[in-house]
User: Fold this.
Amino acid sequence: MAPLGPRELGAAGLASVRGGLRALSDFNPREWRILAPLMFVGFFEVYDLTVLTIGAPQIADGLGVSIGLFGVGVALIRLAALGSVPILRAADRIGRRTMLLVSIAAFTAATGLTALAWGLAAFVAIQTVARAFLATESSLGGVVIAEEVRRERRGAALSLVGVISFLGPGLTALAILAVPLTPLDWRIFYVIALPPLFVIAYLRRNLGETTAFSVARTEERLQPALIPRVPPPYGSRLRRIATVFGVAGAIQTAAFFYSSALAQDGYGWDALYTVTILSAGPFALAGFLLGGPGSDRIGRRPVLAAALVMGVVANVMIFSEVRLMFAPGFWVAAGSNAAVLAVGYAYLSELFPTELRATLTSIVIAAQIAGGSLALLLIGALAGAIDTSLQLVLGGLAATPVILLLRDLPETRGSDVIQPGTSPG
Assistant:
């Protein structure tokens, strides 16, 4: 067969994108009833993180502290996501629906209280609680969607969550414009989040328990102990996938943090960096289409491996300090991060049985968060001795072999998430 020309390749690529976009809306009425109250979990996570970064100057000024001191507070808040592990353990013991209702109620209350914070200590304390339940929202929402959506549509459903999450920075930008126009000042960031949270809480009251959890409870597979017993096959899977996600978190977090410093402080790009971020949107969308609908067709493992390799390539491009490579590298990083996010929850949900799914998924996500925090600490500690960009390039290349751990994990596309050990059909 003759190779395809540029025009044919372009047409095939456009058809693939159109097919992927259609896949983000091709759900039946029952699935939409599940998705409607859950598809915004990523939106609030991204919005909250964006407020703490882009809105940091306004909040720090309003609280009367330096941006450096506020940054320490933000670091503590980010680590609070590790507190979601015991909360998600409860989802494997007493049910998905109960913990979804508890998490949205707690996060909504903490968001409202944040707007009343009178100082940095109060702000950090309240946001620490909010972050723990927000991380619960994100992980548990992904688990429920994976359990309730048709097996051939899981990746697409989770990609829809990711696409909607990208609206978060837009709302943050509008809120920043509103800060000087209202007596609420920085508190407007948290006040405007309350109405949609109340709507979502109202919609969630109609959610039922997932079929997977109901079956596990009927079959008496649930483990009431706080620390569950993890059978050897799943323990091995957990160690491997947690290592992979931990390394991915280190690469992604460090690249995002230090790319901003390189562009703005190293290159003197302020407006140009903003343009680079905005222009990354289509690449992120392409990543979601690869990670979600793409993994529904090709498989979870190869798509995850490809996305992780893309992340390493992006790291090298950005921190090679060749200025012409920065923007393309940032775009590749946006696509890689989106693909990992979309395929990640689908793969994790299919790797573990119902009675361990939320618990072990939370441990993997905790490893990802811890990996990012450790990377920032290590790079910061070595900054005086080793050039930061060199650290990031060499660190990314050194971490690449970890991706090979995926070889000994099963391909799970189409797996039954109700009965453990069921082969894909």
Remarks:
- Residues 1-6, 8-16 have pLDDT under 50 and may be disordered.
